[in-house]
Amino acid sequence: MKAHDLQQLSDAELLKRIQEEEENLSHLRFQKVIGQLENPMKLGHVRKTIARIKTILRDRQLNPSTEQPGQVEQQK
């Protein structure tokens, strides 16, 4: 999934997505150990997806002023 697509998700959806991707990564690692992994590049793709999601979450922590999807802009 591209970073642009991930930025459209809420924090809760991103946290859920991280959990799913980490579970997927553990399954891929297990398949690699037992010799059933057909495409070893999937490991790298999943790891990069997890890193992208964590980067987006960290950016939102450091810059809470940036508008997030579903966030209502406050007026003064």
Notes on the protein architecture:
The protein has 76 residues and is an all-alpha fold. The protein has a single domain (3-61), classed as Helix Hairpins (Orthogonal Bundle), CATH 1.10.287.310. Helix content is 67%, strand content 0%. Helix 2 packs antiparallel against helix 3. The longest helix is centred in the first third of the chain and has 24 residues, at 11-34. The termini are far apart.
Give the H and E element order.
Answer: HHH
CATH architecture name = Orthogonal Bundle
* CATH topology descriptor: Helix Hairpins
Helix content: 55-70%
Measured by DSSP, the beta-strand proportion falls in: under 5%
Give a brief rundown of this model:
By secondary structure, the chain is mainly alpha-helical. It is built from 3 helices and no strands. The chain is elongated and about 45 Å long.
Task: List descriptors.
76 residues; mainly alpha; 3 helices; 0% strand; disordered C terminus
Give the SSE layout.
Layout (H helix, E strand, L loop, with lengths): L2 H5 L3 H24 L6 H22 L14
